[in-house]
Specification:
Elements lengths: L5 E11 L3 E2 L2 E2 H11 L4 E6 L2 E2 L7 E2 L10 E8 L1 H14 L4 E9 L33
């Protein structure tokens, strides 16, 4: 699996949960192909309500309309790797929406803490801030 940090491209594919590819859920096929292509990650999110080109509203609130809810497949990797994957989507996605967004990937180890601070206080650790017994003052 690719470890990714920094600039990346987010690919989002919006389809219906009933969309299939060779009798298999389309969202699952996209995830498996992304995995086989070595992309950094993919997730499927099921919507509770939405509409698309058909202008029909699909919702989980009304039992009679609870079929074919919207599904979003989100894939994140470097721009060249995501763009190289796009031809596979041309084959798979005949109806739906495909979007690309620039994003930045961060991990807790690479920048979520305040710069130069400690994890517990967020204060700068500067020399010379110790008492007579050598303990740091907060």
């Amino acid at each position: 699996m690719t470890r990714l940090t920094g600039r990346a491209l987010r690919l989002t594919v919006f389809v219906g949960e009933n969309d299939t590819w060779h009798h298999k859920p389309l969202s699952s096929e996209i995830v498996h192909r992304a995995h086989a292509a070595g992309l950094a990650g993919a997730s499927v999110f099921r919507g509770v309500e939405g509409f698309g080109a058909s202008s029909l509203i699909h919702t989980s609130r009304l039992l009679s309309l609870s079929e074919d809810l919207p599904v979003a497949v989100v894939i994140v990797d470097t721009e060249p790797r995501v763009r190289a994957f796009l031809p596979q989507l041309d084959e798979l996605v005949t109806e739906g929406l495909v979007t690309l967004d620039d994003c930045e990937v961060i991990r807790p180890q690479s920048g979520l803490r305040p710069t130069g601070g400690t994890p517990t206080t967020g204060r700068e650790d500067t020399p010379g801030e110790t008492d007579a017994k050598g303990k740091r003052s907060l």
